[in-house]
User: Which sequence fits this backbone?
């Protein structure tokens, strides 16, 4: 069995998920209390909704940064001054890459970059971005790097059989490693590669006869740990948030989520590494949860039609 998803089917599924959650959660915009402590929430959190991208400040206030359901997977620059995101163009079956200032101003497209609609990550110097992408309508997967001004685009990896969950690359804090999900070659799983394209290896290999996809990795701020999503497309049909060391070892499941909708998860570390935010369901609504990174009780942070929580650095 090959796990593939056509570009048009993937784009349609993204819209369906967002529409379903927004319909069920319309009017339910709220910031729920959280008892994990003020120290945890020193950074803003970016979230998506069917109204656009929002920024939740550490004091609980919400600010709309963009308008429209097409904007997705926001990513903070290391200094917190810029935000990269993708804008779904369903007619052309692609997701162009955009960058804006962290207050929502200065929105501009990054060259002619077309992503696989699964998110991007900033390099440690805030001058480069890594992204997954492939030509629309083709069963390919690629991993590439581009300068934030749209120049210097370079492909690091290419393969066949696109990941149904997308590549979701994450650049390490020290700049030496890019981690991403991959199903497009004989080496499958949560992979790591150097920014020059060398040193490809698996941190977590997909079982050869099972259909686990490892995706949505995110580094802790100190670079010592990873959090990612393990999706079982087999009989179990499960979705789990897993924490591991930076080399993929000592894995433990932090939270279990329903298999669908597929946009659940997108885990992100708090500035001090004590808490992880992720998107999930509150009944029939989309919401943002938090959970201690060492394990514990999950709590609702934002309730309503919110997805794809991304925590910014301290001071944002």
Assistant:
């Amino acid at each position: 069995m090959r796990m593939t998803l056509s570009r048009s089917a993937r784009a349609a599924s993204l819209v369906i998920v967002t529409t379903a959650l927004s319909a069920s959660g319309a009017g339910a915009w709220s910031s729920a209390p959280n008892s994990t402590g003020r120290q945890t929430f020193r950074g803003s959190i970016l979230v998506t909704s069917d109204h656009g991208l929002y920024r939740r400040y550490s004091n609980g206030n919400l600010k709309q940064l963009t308008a429209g359901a097409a904007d997705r997977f926001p990513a903070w620059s290391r200094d917190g001054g810029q935000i990269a995101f993708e804008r779904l163009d369903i007619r052309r079956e692609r997701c162009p890459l955009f960058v804006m200032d962290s207050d929502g101003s200065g929105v501009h497209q990054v060259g002619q970059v077309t992503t696989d609609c699964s998110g991007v990550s900033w390099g440690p110097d805030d001058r480069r971005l890594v992204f997954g992408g492939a030509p629309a309508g083709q069963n390919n997967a690629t991993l590439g790097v581009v300068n934030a001004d749209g120049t210097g685009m370079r492909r690091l990896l290419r393969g066949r059989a696109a990941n149904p969950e997308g590549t979701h690359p994450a650049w390490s804090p020290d700049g030496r490693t890019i981690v991403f999900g991959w199903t497009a070659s004989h080496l499958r799983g949560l992979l790591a590669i150097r920014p020059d394209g060398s040193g490809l290896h698996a941190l977590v290999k997909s079982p050869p006869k099972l259909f686990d996809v490892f995706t949505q990795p995110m580094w802790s701020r100190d670079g010592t740990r990873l959090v990612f999503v393990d999706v079982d497309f087999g009989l179990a049909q499960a979705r789990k948030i897993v924490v591991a060391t930076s080399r993929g070892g000592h894995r433990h499941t932090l939270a279990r989520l329903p298999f669908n909708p597929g946009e659940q998860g997108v885990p992100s570390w708090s500035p001090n590494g004590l808490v992880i935010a992720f998107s999930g369901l509150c009944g029939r609504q989309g919401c943002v949860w938090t959970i201690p990174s060492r394990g514990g009780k999950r709590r609702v942070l934002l309730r309503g039609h919110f997805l794809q929580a991304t925590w910014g650095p301290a001071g944002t």
Summary: The longest strand covers residues 108-115. Residues 7-311 form a domain with the Neuraminidase fold (CATH 2.120.10.30). The two ends are 45 Å apart (CA to CA). Residues 82 and 286 are 26 Å apart (CA to CA).
